Amino acid sequence: MRTLKLQDKSFCELVDQLKKNTEFSILIKPIESKPISSLRQILRKLPVAALKLLARSHNIPVTAKVKKDELILELYAKLTSDIHFAEIFFNLSVPQRQAFEKIMSVDCLPLEVCISQHLDLLDLRKLGYIQYYNFDDGNYACVSDEIKNSHRYLCQSGKLGELTRASHLYNYTAAAVNLYGILRISDLIGIFNGNEYRITNSSEYLYLIQKYFSNSEKSNFFVFEDCVVSASLRGKDLSEIKKMAAENENKPRFSPVKQVFLKYTDPLYFDTTPELSALEWFLVKKFPENPAVVDEIIERISLHVREGNPFEEYVKIFKDWELEFDQDNMAKLLDYISRFSYTARTWKNNGFTQAEIDLFRKNTRISAKVGRNDLCVCGSGRKYKKCCGR
User: For residue 253, what are the CA distances in angstroms to 6, 176, 181, 225, 233?
Assistant: First the structure.
């Protein structure tokens, strides 16, 4: 085995500084063995808690009841995806790329080398592309054979640029359908071009999206006519999707800055509000012995609120976990959900919260009178009667 020798330094000192972050310490803890070249074997060595954190880092939905073998299959597919790897590699800084390639050039690298030079490389560990080992009284960083092969293939095939571009467009699309549910492709391209130096057009967008994502069962969206639509609506009648697209087109759309918008690439990202925290605290007090279950309940409630699903779906959440409420606590639960719904970003409001919509309408009424055929004061470019005056 080829290794790079280095004078001894204390990696443990760095770990001690970071142990306050429990999740982080779970992921950076070295495996007590010699380096393993197989990614499948590496994943099997990790505890379920670490696998769940890795899954969430890659936007893979995780339930409290998920089995270890299922997690390993999902993570292996994600980590060996050329498209996914291209996006990760593209977003690395130059020093990060150099350090990553240095690790891949040898069987294992003393951990002090990459840590002392590039602390940001720990992000790749949290994503599972680098694994840490403790053996022969030292700590080492290694990359699995599958990850090395993906990197080699992308570099030799010349596909790195195209895959990176496709993945970049995918992230904007995923964020859009998570935030709005449905959006016209022309509007999505407008959002992309308004935030990126290298703009796109409908021809490039459709070519790359259809080539790499349209047939993927794991994609969180699909293309319908001139719209991108959340996969959650796949079972809906086509007439309902058309109606939803038409209704959203006549409403103002929540348009956050790029850094905020791309947070919604994660299907389980929701704004943290006092109302959401209050709902979570109520459930934690009710079921203190099941924190993982509470996390999943909060996620499912948040999804139902965002999508505007009927009340029966909320009831099903608690039936699935066989959790019961007396009449008084059920009334409190519904009140907490109602308050949270009022401040949550929803598809029916085109990404706005109902609280924001009500405040805007109130301010609009207070301002100078606007004729029904005048342009709406929200700046949407539509007539007031077809926008905020509906």
Answer: 55, 11, 12, 20, 19
CA-wise closest residue to 51 among 126, 116, 115, 105:
126
CB atoms closer than 10 angstroms to residue 92: 19
Close Cβ partners of 279 (under 8 Å, ≥ 6 residues apart): 298, 301, 336, 337, 339, 340
| Number of other CB atoms surrounding residue 12 within 10 Å | 9
In this structure, what token pair is assigned to residue 173? 């699309």
CA–CA dist 382, 249 (Å, integer): 10
Q: What is the pTM of this model?
A: 0.71
Taking the C-alpha atoms of residue 80 and residue 229, their distance in angstroms, rounded to an integer, is 26
Q: Cα separation of 83 and 166, whole Å? A: 8
Torsions phi, psi for 20 (to 5 deg):
-65, -30
**CA-CA distance, 364 to 377, in Å (whole number)?**
8
Residue from 126, 137, 133 nearest 8 by CA: 137
d(CA 208, CA 192): 14
- Which helix (H) or strand (E) element contains residue 139? strand 138-142
3-state secondary structure of 21: coil
Concatenating the DSSP letter of every residue in 347-373 gives TTTTT-BHHHHHHHHHHHHHSS---TT
> 134 in helix, strand or coil?
strand
What is the per-residue pLDDT across 106-165, written as a single tens digit (0 to 9) for each? Answer: 777 776 665 555 455 677 777 888 888 887 777 788 888 888 888 888 878 777 788 888
